[in-house]
Amino acid sequence: MDKDRIAGTAKQAKGNLKEGVGRLTGDAKLKAEGKADQIEGKLQNAVGGAKDAVRDAVKKH
Hints:
mainly alpha; 2 helices; rod-shaped
């Protein structure tokens, strides 16, 4: 498993928490930051998945 997948998943979780706290406290900025962190985490996770796929394909050949 690529380190980007791990970091991306962690960033998504952090963003989810931030968004939830922002929603509970009525802090629109914190809520928006949380959503942005989640999107960034998803992208990082996707990059890690692509790296894993390439690595697996190279190992098979």
